[in-house]
Design a protein that fits this description.
Rossmann fold; 10 strands; alpha/beta; four-stranded antiparallel sheet; 8 helices; 31% helix
C-alpha cells in the first residue's frame, strides 16, 4: 500500500512561453516533514498553488490526499492548510476575532483557545493584530492553518523576516505540529541551513524540476558528487540568499 500523501508524476505548468514546472516527479509520504529547497523563481510557489488546485496543470498528474488536486479541489482543500510567505490578517480585529472569522468562512468550529495556546498567543488573544510583531503574525498564521484540522500543511518561506531566535521557535512549533498532531508538513525555503535540521527529507527544485531528493545528511554527503546538479551546489554556497 502506497503511503504517499502527495504523488506527482510528469507535472508541467507553463504560462505562455514561460515554463514554470517541467516533468516534475515527487512523492511525499504521510507523516514527513519535507523541505522544498530552491532559489526565488524556481517554481516553489507555483508548485504549492498547483497542489491546492489554484492553478491548472499544463500536463501531468498530481494527487494530494489520494485525490486529483485539480478535479477534486474542494475535497483536497478541506484537508490542506497553507501559510503563504506574505500572510495577511485584518489589522483592526484581534487575534481571536481573526481566527473566529476565518473559521466561519470555511464552516469549521475549532477550539480557538487551544489554537492560541499552541502558538503561545493566549495572552495576546484580545489584542488587535495591527500591534503584532512579524513573528507574532507568523504564529497566528500557523494557528489559522490548523483551523480545518488538516492532514497536510504547506509553509511557503515561513521564516523570512524572523530573527534567529524566532526562527528556532518557529521550527520547534512546526515539529510539534508534525509529531503531536500527526500532520504532514512541506516547507519551502531558499536557504538550506534554515530547514536542514527541520526536515526528514529535502528536494532541491531548480528550473521547474526536482534535481535531487534525500535526507539532509545524504544530500550533504553527496555535495561534491558528479551526480549532484549545479543547483544544489549554488544553494549550499548561499548564492540564492
Amino acid at each position: 500500500m502506497n503511503d504517499a500523501i502527495v504523488q506527482i508524476d510528469g507535472l508541467d505548468k507553463s504560462y505562455g512561453n514561460h515554463v514554470a514546472l517541467q516533468n516534475l516527479e515527487l512523492e511525499i509520504e504521510k507523516g514527513e516533514v519535507f523541505g522544498l529547497l530552491g532559489p526565488n523563481g524556481s517554481g516553489k510557489t507555483t508548485l504549492f498553488q498547483t497542489m491546492m488546485g489554484q492553478l491548472t496543470p499544463t500536463s501531468g498528474d498530481i494527487q494530494v490526499l489520494g485525490q486529483d488536486a485539480y478535479k477534486d479541489t474542494f475535497d483536497v482543500s478541506k484537508g490542506v492548510g497553507f501559510l503563504p510567505a506574505d500572510i495577511r490578517f485584518y489589522d483592526n480585529l484581534t487575534a481571536r476575532k481573526n481566527l473566529e472569522y476565518l473559521a466561519e468562512l470555511v464552516d469549521e468550529d475549532p477550539d480557538i483557545e487551544e489554537l492560541l495556546e499552541l502558538v503561545n498567543l493566549q495572552e495576546e488573544a484580545d489584542k488587535k493584530v495591527s500591534g503584532f510583531s512579524h513573528g507574532m503574525q507568523k504564529r497566528l498564521g500557523i494557528a489559522q492553518t490548523l483551523i480545518k484540522e488538516p492532514d497536510l500543511i504547506l509553509f511557503d518561506e515561513p521564516t523570512t523576516g524572523l530573527d534567529p531566535e524566532r526562527k528556532e521557535d518557529f521550527k520547534d512549533l512546526i515539529q510539534r505540529i508534525n509529531k503531536e498532531k500527526d500532520i504532514t508538513v512541506i516547507v519551502a525555503s531558499h536557504i538550506l541551513h534554515e530547514i536542514e535540521n527541520l526536515c526528514d527529507r529535502i528536494g532541491v527544485l531548480k528550473d521547474g524540476k526536482i534535481q535531487v531528493t534525500g535526507t539532509p545528511e545524504d544530500i550533504m554527503d553527496e555535495a561534491d558528487a558528479e551526480t549532484l546538479e549545479e543547483a544544489y551546489l549554488e544553494i549550499t554556497r548561499g548564492d540564492f540568499r
